[in-house]
């Protein structure tokens, strides 16, 4: 390992590698202190010296690669050949135009794809990991990229290790090093120095970049960053956004390939037929090229990529960071969302409202994290100094706690977990100074499987274990109870009283937590099962976590969208049911973890068919529920925040991690990360996913209907024995320049009114549904026939010069018809007046721009010679508009009838 001292001549070279040094000597070598950390000036110096703590991503795409990609298409090869043949037959202008259009198309594609790459890169930046360090003698959160050797880093359960650390303090710290060593069993960590020759996998006092803490907590000093870390050296870790093509992109590329083959076959057949029928060879060659160009929707891949990238930005605005592009599509077809309760459906703002004590219940006043408030009994303020049982409970709750309360310009802010912060606030209300608490000597951390936490401290020679946890977990571990000042054995009556108190609190939606303690003797073994036993119950705390105001609307929107919502929480069934009812989630049955274990798949399937909430669950239950729902054909979204949630998040079709309270491990396993941890954002993201899919369908259908029109016109014209209808350059112009712009604009359509009022899309639904194909065929035929009619209307067999005007009218006509036709695709089913004519100004702008370009193509001399056009009269334009309008008017009439019929049916 490269470490600071060997890299930095100003610091003494270490005699040994970091794992072989003692904690004090490594700190001295690296010139830092665990209490104060580095100061800002030293951090800047070291940052300049060692560079940022990042490992260059191996899949960073360079601009020239994207540019090159634009010119490696079969179509481009066809065009280049056409260009060369043009030169050979003396059509130099045509050749120049073809090459220019190839270049322009490449540049347009490059701009679109590069824009897409940039927005993915920006997203990657937002997903950059953060970590907690001590600097300038205070604790702060920074971007992991800013870490320097000598920084003091705090690690807790679920954190990804941000740099290579020599551990200086460990409390039951276990680290999953599988990402580095392949060993799947988590390693117990300690701070003792070990032999210099010890293998990497056995260096128990080190924590390596990219590995993740699965239990406990620890502190370590950074000994290597960025490429100097073990991970950096093997450069395996790239925290990137999955770039793999989405299912839709894959289907589209298959479609593209099929069309490519069709293009070549059609072109050859047509060219040979024409030639056999006596047409000149060169004319047939150019007809074949025109046809090939007409069949393939050239702009499609770039438009899809750009739309997905713009969609990523829109998702960010809606508080969902996509880690995999495909998640947007899956979101669009989600049929079930499994969500946890605390923090997702609720505000995660806990306030202790009631405390049950054997000597009598106490109410706590005050709101949120402001420590202003007092204690009451039967509506009367009480002096907490008279209640030693209350003080004992609060002291215990404070010792078994990692949260702190700080006051800044925005008022009182909690640092740490809300459940724990709420206890700190309650202790403040009794004027207990948290600084009185002594440092813990050991800890059995909270996990959602254990549902409890115990901390051992040593105070004036006495070892004390303080515990808090879910009442039904902690109560069985208690043998005694504190009543007033005295401790006595727990009786059946106590159990009844406690159960009744918990039911009452939970029935009001309060989250309940039992607090217990035990005095340990020096001879007691320091293991979990021995310590968490024979404890004395101090009381039960009830805390309020109000539902988020926007959640009820999101729940009813999910229902309208045909999405079922299941609450799967670690909290108690009574609290879960109370909160579910408050947010409008119907509940017929609350199934707790134990009951779930006893159910076979059939019974669970039956429960899932009803209105059920799952309570007191563990992450394993989540995994089972996901699997079962998927086996029933559901597309499942699953939320999670803990380390153990990772398997369920990975298994789900859409793993959703919480950005604020989620662990790095959960975020790493998820497909999307919610920046505000809010359930409503999931539903917002579903709507956005549906919008994107709809829009992709809209422009795919639009582009294909244009291409169909071109093929129909050229093909029928050949059958009719007409002269060359469109020149290759004209087809390139209509496909690449004018259609590309309108397709991008269609990708920006806002979501339709019914987007969330229709059932989810079947995931196996083909890109082109039957109705989609019918629409393409019908509208394409109209486009083709319209321009063919215009061509033959102007063609005068007696006057060979009429071909120029006929070609120009047909060419302009097809572009105008195609532009009017765009309006038909603004909505897949609804008439335009229900969508709003002006609701997507981009489409109008694109139509305006392309028509202006066509006007220029017809009147600007240079463009006339390039595109082989002649000027048109006003009457010509009038006829074109008359021929074009029915494509919109007829479809509108049909859509209006269908819309009115479906509205009467649904009402
Ligand atoms: P959700 O799964 O909806 O987020 P939750 O936060 O209640 O709900 P868990 O975090 O698994 O689920 O907590 C389960 C139970 O464990 C809680 O109801 C509470 O009684 C107890 N608990 C929660 N946090 C702590 C903690 N820091 N220390 C001890 N016990 C805790």
From TrEMBL:
Q: Provide a Gene Ontology MF annotation, just one.
A: ATP hydrolysis activity
Main subcellular location = membrane
Domain Cation-transporting P-type ATPase N-terminal, first and last residues per copy: 17-91
Subcellular location(s) per record:
Cell membrane
InterPro entries xref list: ATPase_P-typ_cation-transptr_C (IPR006068), ATPase_P-typ_cation-transptr_N (IPR004014), ATPase_P-typ_cyto_dom_N (IPR023299), ATPase_P-typ_P_site (IPR018303), ATPase_P-typ_TM_dom_sf (IPR023298), ATPase_P-typ_transduc_dom_A_sf (IPR008250), ATPase_P-type_domA (IPR059000), Cation_transp_ATPase_P-type (IPR050510)
Where are the membrane-spanning stretches? 71-89, 95-111, 259-278, 284-312, 699-719, 725-746, 767-791, 803-822, 842-862, 874-894
Superkingdom of the organism of origin: Bacteria
Under Pfam families, the record lists:
Cation_ATPase (PF13246), Cation_ATPase_C (PF00689), Cation_ATPase_N (PF00690), E1-E2_ATPase (PF00122)
An example GO biological process term is:
export from cell
Instruction: State the membrane topology.
Output: Multi-pass membrane protein
Q: What reaction does this enzyme carry out catalytically? A: Ca(2+)(in) + ATP + H2O = Ca(2+)(out) + ADP + phosphate + H(+)
Q: Where is this region: Disordered?
A: 1-20
Q: What's in the keyword line of the UniProt record?
A: ATP-binding, Cell membrane, Magnesium, Membrane, Metal-binding, Nucleotide-binding, Translocase, Transmembrane, Transmembrane helix
Give the record's GO CC terms. plasma membrane
The family note in this entry says:
Belongs to the cation transport ATPase (P-type) (TC 3.A.3) family. Type IIA subfamily.
Protein name per Swiss-Prot or TrEMBL: Calcium-transporting ATPase 1
Q: What organism does the UniProt record list as the source?
A: Rubripirellula lacrimiformis
